Amino acid sequence: VTVNLTLVLTAAVLVGCGTVLMLERSLTRVLVGVILLSNGVNLVLLLAGGPAGPAPLVDKSDPDAPTTDPLPQALMLTAIVITLGTTAFLLAMAYRRWQLSGFDEVQDDVEDALVARLARADEPSDTFAPSHDEDPDEGPDRDPDRSPEETRRRTRDEQRRDTP
Amino acid sequence: VNLLVPLPVLLPLLGAALTLVLGRAPAAQRVISVGALLGVVAVSATLVVQAELDGPQAIWVGGWPEPLGIALVADRLAAVMLLISSIVTLAVLVYSIGQGMVDDAESAPLSVYHPSFLVLTAGVSNAFLAGDLFNLFVSFEMLLFASYVLLTLGGTESRVRAGTIYVVVNVLSSMLFLVAIALVYAATGSLNLAQLSVRLQELPEPVALVLQLMLLLTFGIKAAVFPLSAWLPDSYPTAPAPVTAVFAGLLTKVGVYAMLRVQTLLFPDSPLTELLLVAALATMLIGILGAVSQSDIKRLLSFTLVSHIGYMVMGIALATPAGVAGAIFYVVHHITIQTTLFLVTGLVEHRTGSTSLLRLGGVARLSPLLAVLFFVPAMNLAGIPPFSGFLGKVGLTSAAIELGTPLAYALVVGGMVTSLLTLYAVSKAWSLAFWRTPQEAHETAQAMRREGAVDADDQADDVTPDDDNEQDLYQLIEQDALPRQRPRTMVGATAGLLTVSLALSVLAGPLFAYADRASRDLMERDPYVTAVLPEELR
Fold it and tell me: What SS3 state is found at B130?
């Protein structure tokens, strides 16, 4: 099978960009990544059908020429519809995330958060640290179990609750 | 042509359409869903009998001349998977109906619950019946879409967080699957599994290897095989109890099934057995080590789920008739047992408001029935002798010893260690949540808090952070604040499923014989190909 180099390169660029974007933390960028990636993959499907020719059934100008393979195009169409659904769902989820917390970043998973907290708990405790009094950050007000991000989020929640 | 074959897909889909229309009439929704699933159970049972007596049943949907249509095939393996999965989904549906009647509105099933659940069932059935790769892809998407909706039901903060990771990981695996499909089509000009089983043999070895790796990677993500398993314990526990139960029982097993089908039918002389064996070993050990360190029952069970996928992959990777038969038996056993355990955990949560091992205590005294419902499947999961878990592990172990390579022996040892650690993990859950007195639990938690250890409730908070209930079971009992309603339907569904799992133990002999015949069909490949393709296309 001869392959169209332009299509191959386009697919490679789309898949590459999509992969990079999917590694981002913001869900909207992940979404753009998914769209790019799926377009790249659809081009790969198109390539799988071999060289282009007259349309089957419709184009009867040259009955001897080999027609385009219609199957990969049907597959692409299905894939496009599925991607549309995925995109809509991801958008809804990003919006819901934003509604709930004011940002749409993908958060750490539970195990990561737990490991980080255990690591923090491993630090010398307040009563042990000799330099405790000199360190303003280690005052009794600071909650050692709360990450800065968590504190920020909870503060925002509290503010929202206060404004009617 | 067997017109029964498409019914396990059609009935739930029709049911989904009807329940969607009848969104305002919950009673009608319940009747339709239960009716559709009862139909699927009946059809699947018939298909098991037919596949057993007359060999694989096939139909080319749409009446196109072969090989243009879409083939659906029910051989022994597909039929038994259909039967067990439809029984499990039916039990879970009844359970969730019971939950909807007794619970508050927040976690109760909404009007969209029934349609999503039925689409999920249709997707699972379609995946088992699919006779070509693209149809398999479509069925994956069907069940995934329904699972996205079910996982983020209600849109609470923790569910959206878990759902995000789940959706992105699965979208990525779908993209990989599509690329794999494109490559297979470019290399062979067909996507029909029966045709591929002939044509892939004619390909140069490196090309076939790339195709096999791509497909294994895709199914490895779906089945949560070790390096690809991190998404599972994070996303499953946040969903409502019946949803977690059906996901844990079925979705990973669909990945295992696809792996089994592709490895035996398309790549019978697979050069990748060693890679798969190593992956199986790592899945078992790392999964169970994760389970040991958990302090929440749902998360603990999710990790054991990952770990026990390793046993099934082990059977597939052994690639001997005995190994594959062991894997089939283990899949059937594990679907019922894992679902039962998650359903019981849901009952515990319903009764006591928590699944954290640090807050629970004395559930056995509070409700002896729940204790029995938890204890029996937990021992079954760990592989204590009279139960099916033990028999499945014996089957796999003897298959590995029969193969006799050093790696196979390493897996035997790994399997034993995993089994022991599973016993440790579930008995830890048992003695903390069910056996000690609530007062003991209360005092331990207080002591931990005084010592300033990591906040005892943190992990539980992460699973259900919107649960404001900071009191442990002891305080709730003191205040007499436990729910009074008796969830009869939920308990009934769980007990029913437990009975099925016990029946699997009692009928293990015939079931293993059936698995043996199914595995022989798979290894010979001829019965499948002859049933699907007419003479001239083979």
Answer: strand
ipTM passes above 0.90: no
Query: Over the range B154-185, which residues count as b (16 or more CB within 10 Å of their CB) and which as e?
Result: eebbbbbbbbbbbbbbbbbbbbbbbbbbbbbb
Lookup: tokens for A48: 């799988």
Question: Which residue reads 């005092």 in tokens?
Answer: B443
Residue B110's region, left for phi above 0, alpha for psi from -120 to 50, else beta, is beta
Q: Which residues of A touch B152 (CB under 8 A)?
A: 93, 96
**pLDDT above 70 (res B263):** yes
Task: Compute chain A's Rg from CA coordinates.
Answer: 27
CB B184 within 8 A of CB A128: no
Helix (H) / strand (E) element for B58: namely: strand B57-61
CB contact set of A153 (below 8 Å; sequence gap of 6+) = A101, A102
Give B299-333 pLDDT, tens digit per residue. 899 999 999 999 999 999 988 889 999 999 999 99
Residue at token pair 């549309």: A84
User: CB-CB: which of A50, A106, A113 is closest to B462?
Assistant: A113
Could you give the CA distance from residue A19 to residue A35 in angstroms, rounded to a whole number? 10
CB B234 to CB A109 under 8 A? yes
